[in-house]
Each structure stands twice: as C-alpha cells, then as structure tokens.
Design brief:
heterodimer; A: alpha/beta; Rossmann fold; 47% helix; B: alpha/beta; 3 domains; four-stranded mixed sheet; 10% strand; elongated
C-alpha cells in the first residue's frame, strides 16, 4: 500500500522532529511512506476564521499532492478532521471525496489499519496525555467525558505498549487547551487562562512530560511553560511511540 | 458591536483581571457540570433520551405551523386568551395593554429568558409599571441593575459577600452578613410581600403541549406558582419553539432538563397550567422575534430545539473563564452565540468567535444541537456578509495565497524561520498578542521537507552508486 505522510504546515516548518518521528515509526512498522513535497496546508486557519471560501487553492493543492495514495497519514487530529469535513476540489471532486475517507490521524491509523499490538518503545517517565478536542470529539479517537458511553482510547492503547511509561490521571480529562486557531490571539486572555489551567492540572499530578496528538495544543502549552520557566517538556505522541 | 458595549474579547480581558475570581467562577460552574455528569451517567438510557428528545424537536420544527394552531385552538377552548407577537416590541405592548386592562401598575415576574430577550423590564418601567423579578437570582441581578449572567443561574457571577452587601443596601440585612440561610430568608420575606400584593403575574413557559393546550413551568423556588396562583391575571410568554406535540413527550424533556441544568433528577416544581381558576384571567403570548428567520436558515434552524438548560454554558471552557456578561446578549454562552447573530449580525458578530470549537457543548446538549458546527457556519456567514475586520480579511487573503502555492509556501516559511532565528524581536514583541504570555516556538534551521529532500538525495545517490556498481559487475 502507498502511504503518504501529511504534515501540518507548522509542524513541517517548526516541529520537524515530529515529522521525523512519525515517518520513522511508520517505517519501523513496515510501511512504505512518501512525503509529497507539493503539500502545504489543509486550509483550516482560514476556514475556522470564517473564510472557508478562500481555501479552494489549498484544497486543490491538497488533492493534487495526495492524489493516488492509498492512505494519507498525519500526526494531527485537527488537520485530519478539517480534511474529512471540508475537502472539495474544483478539478477532481471524486478524488477529493475519496481522500476524505483515506486520510487518517496517526494513532487511529496504527490501531485501526495497521492493527498494531506491540511496539518496541521505551519511555520511563511520568506522562500527562492531553487529548485534542478535534481528535477526540471530532475523530472519536477516545471517548469523551460528556457522553454516557463505554470508554476507549486509541492513543491510550498505544501508550500502554510503551515500556516504563507512567500515565497520570487528570482532574479534567478532556478540557480544551484554549489554542483554538486564531482564537489564541483574538481571545488572548481566555486562551492563556485555559492553557495555564490545563498545565496546572498536569503539574498537580506530577507530569514530567505533557504529550498529545496535536502539535497546536502542545505549541500553546510549550509557549506558556517556557514563559513560566518550567522544566516540563511537551512531546508529540509519535515521539513517544518512536522512542527507544 | 453595540455602541459602548465591549466585544467578547475585550470584556474577557476585564473578567480575567482577578485570576482568583476567574478560578472561583470556573470551578463553581465545573461543579455543576460534574453534577450533570453524575446524573446523566446514572441513567443507562441517557443517550437514548437525548436522541428521542432531539427527534421530537426535529418533528416540532418541521410541523410548527400545525402544532401552534392546534395549541392555540385547545388553549382557547380552555378559556385562555392567546396573543401572537411578531417581535419584542409587540410582545411588550401586549403585556402593557393587559396590565392597563387590569388597572395594575405592578407586575411580579418569574424567570423568563424571553422577557430578557424582549427587554420587557425597561419597557414597562418606562411606562410606569413596576416589575419585581421573583426568582432569587433574578431579583439579585435586578437589584444590581444588571442582566442575568446565566440562563439558569442568573447571579452565578456573584459571591456571597456581594449578595450580603446588596441585601444590606436594599433589604436592610445586617452589614457584612454572608450566611446564605440568613440572606435567603430576607429575600423570602421580601418576595412573600410581593406575591401577596401583586395582581398581575407573568411567567415563562418551558413546554407548551399542542395536544392539550396546557403548558408547564419549571422552577426550583416555586416562585412562578406563588405569583400565578395569587394574581388575578396570569400572563405566560413563550417563544414559539417551546411547543411539544403530546403530554407523553413531557417525560422525556423533564427528565433531561433538570439533569442537564443542575444535575437534579427533576426540577422541584414542574407546574401544569391548563385554564384560569374561577375569577382569574389567563393570557398566553406566543412570540416570534426572529425565530421565523432562524427557522428559514437550514443550517441554523436546529438552534430552535434549545430547552434552555444551560448545560452548554457550564461545560464551555470559554464561558467559565469569561462570564455571561461578556456575551452582551440575553442568552450567553455557546447557545447564545448561535442565537444572537440571527437577531443582529452586526452587534453579535464577535460571539461565534468566542469559542475554540472544542465541541463539548454539542455533546452535553440534551437535544443534540450541533452547536460547534453552527458556530463554524456563523463565522462563514459573518465573513461573507462583511462583518469581519478588513485587516483580518486582508491577512487571511495573503495567507490563503501563500498556503495554496508550494513554492510561495516554501519560500515564505524559510524566510520566516531565518528572521525568527536571526532577529527574534521581529515576532517577539508587544505587537504580537501570542508573545504577551507565551514564548514563540523555536525556529529550527531545517524544516522537515528540507531534511526529507536531503535524505532522499542521499538515498538516490546511494541507489545510483549501487546501480553503477551492479552495472560494472555485469
């Protein structure tokens, strides 16, 4: 099967180590992975700000870049959700609709398609998992606290395969980090308060690392942690699953 | 924005000035969310109840005309006078006429978000009618000259100390008193006097039943009953979406409403009104006030399914940290943010942006309104109708161009990273709201794509070398 790695634009540019970890992890699991160089952005920054009508260029570019791959895998719940819900093409709508169905967030690709049952990963630390809202409530990567429904967690199942990793319990297991795209600057006060409150929950329970499936949440946490002078680090799920 | 009324972001800055206060507000409402969770998780059929309620409401919205006419017929047959009001102004005028007809100058009113939406109190006061809100929380905010900050918990933004000061000033309680029982008793005595002397009472309506022409009013304090049963005239106001087809549907909604709102199994008083008692007059006002317009917007009509439980506010991480008044609308929080733009896009254009689109609201909603989807869709409408700042639009137009082109993308980001590495002050300054409380991400020398190109080149070179070696062997 032909797998394309799709990296959120800011991950490609500012967090290349997350891309490298994702690529290496998939290769370790026997996947033949390509990185189409013509990929740019899913268009979400414009769309969530109200300008979905300006995203056709991004959409068309996405469809051209990923056309023909069996699976498109990204270390991001948010960008994958955006593609699943909003990808349209003026040139090849059939391919756009097909791509909506074969784009996967990394953890669901590992659990649902590759059906991974063990990993050669080791990470002997106390770790707090931040679930991203688009990954959880959008892609249903784990059960949300709002529903009266059986619990499950795809990233949680993968973390359970990591030797030495101690996952901490949080007081609020799935509250939003407050990043929210342009919200992080247009509603700076609330955004920062939300982020600090999430961080405090992790610190209260002794987290050495805050990890997550979306770098956008982690970037927000990292900015706050560094400003506070904290030694607590953020890492993407892929970096943990790829650690040895 | 409304003149002189700060937008949501600006009001939130003020709300966040005292962090301990924000923490208290957040934790208080989170406590209510947790109570709701416990009540919801205790019912194995919870999700089925939500689905059933959602479908009943979908049916209602698709058959509103017939249901409303049926309701009117049955209510009239029960001796209730039914009025139709196209907007807030007409609603308020009808109330005033009824008051004049009864020769009354004083009105006791139980909780009704519709009358907040219609700004009934200031209208009546202007016309010489004194209104007393009989819900404790509403009375508190009324004495303070404020609107409610929450549809179920109107004074949730206030601490015991604030109430103590207020009651000392208006109800003559002891200075510095904060004991809830003492303060509540003072309010009770004050309101008891009101109930005994008012000849006209106005209540809201939680559910109007088409099949019977009767309606149900839910309160925890019994204040609607106290008002309505003692008055000569009972006025009940409802938005036209409050209709449900049959009495048997009530069980679904009453079980959901209190659990979603406060985590109680049922609201303390769920009173059924069918006809006036002997000698009493009963008036019912059915209000549109923009609801027809909302019903006509296919992507937003589901917002009319709302039963005003407030669960979306309690769960909203933004609401909990910005307070109800920051939404400058009778209904605050996520549901308010999708209802308000229908009433006035210009004044409420900021509200659909007062969200991270986290989706928690849609999943606590007892009637399954897709609130986060509607917030996203309102943003699209507001942008197309020109209610977003030109600066933001221009910026996003440039971004859209750059992000649609692999070449421009590569060049722009490479330059950007170089600037961030060599001249960090260009982005790390007070003009960048991100930087106020957060460090900028560290710009790496090499992007993933640069790394990828390098390793591919190396791999290709290896492959060429291998092929050449192989050729030589042949």
């Amino acid at each position: 099967m032909k797998i394309a790695l799709f990296l959120p634009c800011y991950v490609d540019q500012f967090y290349p180590q997350v891309g490298v970890a994702t690529l290496q992890l998939l290769q370790k699991l026997g996947c033949d992975v390509d990185f189409p160089l013509s990929q740019t952005c899913c268009g979400q920054p414009m769309a969530n700000a109200g300008f979905e009508h300006l995203t056709q260029g991004c959409n068309d570019n996405f469809v051209r870049a990923f056309s023909g791959y069996d699976y498109v895998v990204a270390p991001s719940g948010s960008c994958v959700l955006h593609i699943k819900e909003h990808l349209h093409s003026t040139e090849n709508e059939a391919e756009a609709l097909r791509l909506r169905h074969c784009v996967y967030e990394l953890s669901e690709f590992l659990t649902d398609i590759l059906k991974v049952e063990s990993l050669p990963a080791r990470f002997p630390h106390r770790v707090g998992m931040h679930v991203s809202c688009h990954g959880q409530r959008g892609l249903k990567l784990s059960q949300m606290s709002e529903l009266n429904a059986p619990g499950f967690s795809k990233p949680g199942a993968l973390l359970a395969m990591v030797e030495g990793l101690e996952l901490i319990e949080l007081d609020r297991k799935d509250e939003c980090c407050g990043f929210g795209g342009t919200f992080c600057v247009s509603e700076e006060a609330v955004s920062v308060k939300m982020g600090n409150d999430r961080i405090a929950d992790h610190l209260r329970h002794g987290a050495e690392y805050i990890i997550g499936g979306d770098v956008s949440c982690l970037m927000h946490f990292e900015g706050l942690l560094r400003r506070q002078g904290s030694t607590v680090k953020v890492l993407h799920l892929a970096e943990i699953l790829n650690s040895e | 924005m409304k003149t002189n009324i700060p937008d949501h972001a600006t009001a939130s800055v003020a709300f966040n000035r005292d962090e301990s206060y924000v923490d208290w507000h957040d934790e208080t409402l989170w406590f209510v969310r947790q109570k709701r969770d416990r009540a919801a998780m205790a019912l194995p059929e919870w999700e089925d109840l939500r689905e059933t309620a959602s479908q009943i409401k979908n049916h209602v919205l698709s058959n509103l005309d017939g249901l409303l006419e049926e309701f009117e017929r049955k209510a009239q047959a029960n001796g209730i006078t039914v009025h139709w009001a196209v907007d807030a102004q007409e609603h308020n005028q009808i109330v005033l006429e009824i008051m004049r007809g009864a020769g009354a100058k004083q009105l006791v009113k139980s909780k009704s978000m519709l009358t907040e939406e219609c700004h009934l109190n200031p209208f009546l006061q202007k016309h010489g009618v004194e209104v007393i809100d009989s819900d404790l929380g509403e009375r508190i905010v009324q004495l303070r000259g404020e609107p409610p900050s929450h549809i179920v918990l109107p004074a949730i933004h206030l601490k015991k100390k604030d109430i103590g000061e207020l009651f000392h000033k208006y109800l003559g309680t002891e200075k510095g008193a904060t004991d809830p029982q003492y303060l509540t008793e003072a309010a009770r005595q004050h309101l008891r006097e009101t109930f005994l002397t008012r000849r006209v009472a106005l209540t809201g309506i939680n559910f109007a039943i088409a099949e019977t022409g009767g309606f149900v009013v839910c309160t925890n304090e019994g204040n609607a009953d106290m008002g309505a049963h003692l008055a000569d005239v009972h006025i009940a106001s409802m938005g036209f979406e409050k209709i449900i087809p049959k009495t048997e549907h009530l069980g679904v909604f009453l079980r959901l409403l209190a659990r979603s709102a406060t985590g109680q199994p049922i609201t303390t008083y769920c009173s059924h009104f069918h006809r006036a008692r002997t000698g009493q007059q009963m008036h019912l006002i059915i209000v549109d006030n923009g609801r027809s317009a909302q019903l006509g917007r296919p992507e937003f009509r589901a917002s009319l399914k709302c039963i005003r439980c407030g669960a979306c506010m309690n769960t909203c991480p933004v609401y909990r940290r910005s307070g109800g008044h920051s939404y400058h609308n009778a209904v605050a929080g996520p549901i308010g943010a999708i209802l308000a733009p229908n009433l006035n896009m210009r004044e409420n254009a900021d509200l659909p942006f007062a969200s991270t689109l986290c989706g928690s609201c849609s999943n606590v909603c007892p009637v399954k309104i897709d609130i986060d989807k509607q917030l996203y869709l309102w943003r699209q409408v507001l942008a197309k109708e020109g209610y977003i700042s030109g600066v933001k639009e221009a910026g996003l137009q440039v971004a859209a161009k750059v992000l649609a082109s692999p070449t421009l993308f590569k060049w722009t980001f490479r330059t950007g990273r170089m600037v961030m590495r060599t001249m960090p002050f260009v982005v790390g300054n007070s003009l960048n709201p991100w930087f106020d409380d957060r460090e900028m991400p560290t710009a790496p020398k090499e992007s993933f794509r640069q790394w990828w190109e390098k390793i591919r080149e190396k791999a290709n070179a290896e492959e060429v070398k291998n092929v050449e070696a192989f050729e030589k062997l042949k």
